[in-house]
Amino acid sequence: MISANREAKVTVTNLTKSFGDLLVLNDVNFNVGDGEFLCIVGPTGCGKTTFLNLLSKLMPPSKGNICINGEIADPKKHNISFVFQEPSCLPWRTVKENIAYGMEVKKLPQQEIEERLEKTMKLVGLTDCANLYPNQISSSMEQRVAIARAFAAKPDLLLMDEPYGQLDVKLRYYLEDELIRIWQEFKTTVIFVTHNIEEAVYLAERVLILSNKPTTIKAELKVDLPRPRNFLDPEFVEIRKKVTELIRWW
Amino acid sequence: MENSKDRLILKILPYLGILAVLVIWELIVDLGIVPNTLLASPIQVVKLFFIKLNTADPDGAVLAVHIATSLKEALLGYSLALIIGIPLGLAMGWFVIVEGLARPIFEMIRPIPPVAWIPLAIFWFGIGLTGKAFIIWASGVVPCVINSFVGVRMTNPTFIRMARTYGASDWEIFKQICIPSALPMVFGGLQVALAASWTALVAAELIAADTGLGFLITMGRRLLMPDMIVLGMLMVGLTGVVIGVIVDKVEKRLVAGVRR
Fold first, then answer.
1. For chain A, which domains are there?
2. Which of A11, A205, B18, B182 is the most exposed, fewest CB within 10 Å of its CB?
3. Which Gene3D superfamilies match (chain B) (predicted)?
4. The sheet that has A8-19: what strands, in order across it?
5. ipTM of predicted assembly, 2 dp
C-alpha cells in the first residue's frame, strides 16, 4: 500500500470503534510510510474525529491496534503530536514557551530545546513574536504556533485535524505551502485529516478516502505531482475530480 | 478634543459624588433633620479620627491598635483560608479521589453561615486571636475552594488533550495546564473570600472582643457615640479597600497574558 522504497512507520490493523450499538469505525487497515504525508478525507460526520482520537490514543479502540515502529502506540513512549482544529495555545505562555511545551513534556535538554526553537520559529516566521502572548497575535498565527510546537517535538507521528479549517482561503494557501516546507525540512510522518478535497490533493503524497458510517477506507489514491502544485494543472484537476467522485455519498 | 474632555469629566465625577454625599450628610445633621444622637456629621467623625489617633479613651485603645488587631485577625484567617482552600479546590477539580472524599463534607459545611460558628469558636478558642481567625477562615475558605474547583473544571479540554498527546502525565497536566488555567478564577475567589472574611471579622468582633474595628463600633453603641460608630465603619471600609487593591495588584502581576 505504500511506496516501495519506504518502510512502514505506522501500521493500523483492524481498527474498530463502537459506542454502544453504534459502530463508528469498522475494521480499518492501512500503513503510513516513514516521512510520508498522508491525507484522509471523508464525507462530513464520517467519524474523522473519532478516527483521530483513536490514532492519538486519546480514546481506546474497541478492537484492533495502531503500531508505531512495530510497537503498540503509547503517547508516553512514542512521540505523537496533534494539531487541533481549535486554537490550542496556552494563553499564559508566550509564543516561544508555547512552542517549547511539547519538548518540555518530553524532557529534552534545555540546549536542544533552544536550538529547535530557533530553527522552528525561523521556519514559521514567528521569531519576531517570540515573546508575545497568544491574545496578542492573530488566530492564524496561533495556529502556526500550534504547528510549530508539533513539528519542534520531532514526532514519530504528527496528526493534524483540519488545522486550517477556520481560516480564510488566501491565508490557507499560504500556510499550506509553509506546512509543506516545514514537513520537507523535518521529514515528519504526517496524517492530515480534512474535508477539503482540494487541500488534500494539494498537500498529500497519498489520499485515503473514507466511507460513510460505519467508516472504512473506501479507496486510496496516490498523488504523484511535483511541488509546488498548481490547482489548475489538468492532472491536479483530474485527481481532485476522482476524489470528489469517490467521496460522493448521495 | 472631545475624548480628553470626556476623560477629564470621568476623572472629576467620582470626587464630586463623594463631596456631594458628604455635604448633604453634613447638612442633614446640622439642620437637625436627623438628631445628632442618632447620626454624627462628617466633621465630627473627622475630629474623632484625629483624637483617636493618639487617645486611647474612652474605648481603651488608639485607632492604630484597633486596625492592627483587625488586620492581624483577618490576615491570619484569610491566609489560612487560601493555604487550605486553594489547593483543596484545585485538587477537587482534577483528582476524582479528592473530589469523592472531600466534596460531600464540603457541601455539608458550606451552607452554614460563618457567623453561626461564633458561639462554638468562643467555646473552643475564647475571644482572642485564634477564635476570630477561625471564624474568618471558615468564611474565607468556601469561596477559595469553590472558585479553584470551578477554575480547574473550566480548563479548555483541548489544552488537556494537547498535553496528553505529548505524553504528559496526570500530575503534569494538573500542574502545567489546569492550575495556570484556573488562576483567573482563583484570584476572583480571593476577592470574594476577602469580602467574606472582612464581613465575618466585624461580625465576630461585634460579639466578642476587647480591641479591633468591630469592637470600636460596638463601643460606640455602648457609649452612645454615633461618631465612633461611623468612624469604625469607615475604617472597616477603607482598610478593606486597601487590601482589595493589594490583592488586585498581585493578581495582575501573576496572571499576565491570561485572557480575562
1. 1-79+190-250 (3.40.50.300)
2. B18
3. MetI-like
4. A22-33, A8-19, A63-68, A71-72
5. 0.86
